[in-house]
Amino acid sequence: MNRRMVAFFVGSVLRIEAVLMILPLVVSFIYGEDEWIYIAAAAVISFLVGYLLSFKKPKNVSFYTREGIMAVALSWIFMSVFGAIPMWHAVSHIGFTDALFETISGFTTTGASILTEVESLPKGLLFWRSFTHWVGGMGVLVFMLAILPEASGENIYLMRAESPGPSVGKLVPRVKSTAKILYLIYIGITLSEMIALMVAGMPMYDAVVITFGTVGTGGFAVTNNGCAAYTALQQGIITFFMIVCGANFNVYFLVVARKFKAAFTSEEVLSYLSIYAAATLCVAINARNMFTGFGEALHHSFFNVASVMTTTGFSTTDFNTWPVFSRMMLLLCMFIGGCAGSTAGGIKVSRIVIGFKTIRKELQHLVHPRSVKILKFEGKPIEHSVLRGINVYFLTYILIFAVSILLVSLDGKDFTTTVTAVIATFNNIGPGLDMVGPMGNYSQFSAFAKYVLMFDMLAGRLELFPMLLIFMPMTFRRQK
Amino acid sequence: MKIIIVGCGKVGATLAEHLNQEGHDITIIDRHWEKLKYLSERIDVMGVEGNGASITTQREAGVQGADILIATTNSDELNLLCCLIAKKAGNCQTIARIRDPEYYNEMRYIRDELNLSLVINPEQAAAAEIARIIKFPSAMKVDTFARGRAELIKLNIPEGSQLDGLRLFDMESKLHCKVLICTVERGEELLIPHGDFALQAGDIVSFIAPHSVALAFFKAGGANISNSVRSIMLIGGGKMSYYVAKKLEETKISVKIIEQDFEKCQTLSEMLPHAVIINGDGTDKQLLDEEGIGVVDAVGNFTGIDEENILLSLYEKEMSKAKLLTKINRITFEEVIAGLDIGSIINPNSITSDNIVRFVRALNNSRGSNVETLYKIAQGRAEALEFRVRNESKVVGRPLMELKLKPNVIIACITKGNKVVIPNGQSVIEKDDLVVVVSVERGLNDLEDILA
User: Fold this and answer.
1) Which residues 29-58 on chain B approach chain A with CB closer than 8 angstroms?
2) What ipTM, to 2 d.p.?
3) How far from A163 is each of A10, A191, B41, B45, CA to CA, in Å?
């Protein structure tokens, strides 16, 4: 591995993080809070470290898959460590582990919190907490590619390692332009939601922070009871934008490029919407007795199913008290997650759809042993290597899942809490059930369990393999 | 510009790499997914899988908004069809690679009727280059500027030549002719020499001169770098040998072709009545001796196998003083081959891609930039660019010595009407002149870019 080149990229990411911290700093100043000093200190430290790592571009610029994956994995870890500094110092009762947990939860757009009480926290700090969602949603390395002066061909490795989904393609020939387009779409959606929420009467600060949580599909709120305090219209707007951000961003590119036919026949997005509609209906019917009427049941079902399926993790009501079937339905949606190429987590709709097609093909093969069938997705044959990648993904997913549950269970919490805590962090959702339900939080876990969950969050966000490669000594070996 | 390349073979890949470096947006179409994947991981291009002649695939690759489509698949017919469809679907410029001599002879008709912008034949283009090199047998490479009036010549200075140890400002008094040495490759280094620079044996120099001056320079340079070719032996009777022989038919040079396959020999003999066709194995030492490998003035090793060509050249280097031409299809080990000192290396694929890159630059030209022609020197580390002076720019109307140039940029040659001038400090650039600039810097797009 070309360590200098990886260090160079990690350094550049830290420098960008330092610049991004100026925004919460400004917010902190506006509200006249004393905690600005911690944010400023964090910005200065991460800039200095970033500068030390990247002030000179290394002579040997060889950069391949191995380097790309490591640059992404290490960038995310370092970014979280430095991003945790403000919270670590500004909030008196939490230690470094808790601050790191909160920051990783932010960057990976999980939204799992260890804070029992958020309303009294400084506004600048809460702004930074939610802003990490926005940065982590589309990916900080993609952002770097968009603004870096001249990207070479190898940079597709970076993008592929950071973007969710089984196969990452480019929208236009150049990586730099692709990254730019993605961020423009992302910024467009962000601004639309902010404006919509403000028009619907939400205070500006709430509108901005909730928007970061929605478009990054993160889920940090600024009130103790999530989104329950907002009006039905405001909740409706949030629901809409959660769904928008859980869909494949390629579709928006196609719409902008006026390729409407391709955009509206996208197999993945149609499957995603059908799953969402079916799940919403089932939950609404099952849980109708919890509410005053079917209309209200449908409203809450719309919001909460969208929230878990897009792995956002906002809540309007404590779905922990819903009937068992509804809760199981929500759990199922947690696993499915959003589309590839979105800001959402989970297994991804495309993998689920291709998985089902594989099962059908194998069943057909049992009936007609000599049958030949080429699987297609989005109207195109699926390459063998993509299929293999998906199968290995499923296996790895189950493996990490099982080991994590085992490790977290050492804490001795009850069955539902243990299992759903892993589900909710691994799929980047946030709230699980019981103790970690929408009204609960993760503060009761031991430090060890928190580190396991942090690993799960990072593994879930970065598509499993980058985080596993860190543990392979083979990766770090010098090539020449 | 947006460019679509159909076919991801050696030419397609080389083209994608070069055009990408020049800042164009490249989309590649190929049937094979693995090839696309491999290429798009190495360079920043987008791949589209499918048949390049299918309108669906072309639309997916964005033919509607494309500026140029280049078809470089293995099949001539497919290339023509790709261009034809792209022209109708996207109204873009089209470039096709056509290799079959049968079509190539009718190229003018096909090009005009199918509205192609450029037709390129790798073997024919290589043959043209070989014909140029044969005029200066001691040159490694010859390119032309100013529509053929000036030449860019690459030369390896041999031991015991007059040039060995010559300081550049003594050149005019000692050799009675003046050429401008643009670049010197010494070992790994690439230098742009000054007046007090002394040449050494083993240096590879590139210089620009009008044809007559270049001839005089070779004569003055000493006996072992000036001799003319009267006979040439070509080993391997493929397309390349055919085009070279055809090209040399009108000259007095006698051509001998050695080919293993009897039927091929018959066809060649039918098409090339003046050439001597020998049916035999080109790697047979005895046959080579018998046919006079020691006495011919030039040998072209044009078999289909690179390794065989290199081995033949190494053997011939020992056996004779003939000018060696070696065809190499793969350019992966360029540095190693350059170190073998086996005369001129002919790579039809890179000649093709250079030609297309040149065409694309010239097309860019009509959109504001000024480059007429472009050659790469020293494996692309330096460029020689020809500009047409169109408007009143800052460089016009002032003696050159008053201009403050960037370091590592020289003005190598100015063509005024039909006259080629090697410039000195008093020379003045005027409107409508053709100016050749040699630069180590990449991406000069306008003549004014040379100013510091």
Assistant:
1) 33, 40-46, 49
2) 0.75
3) 17, 22, 16, 18
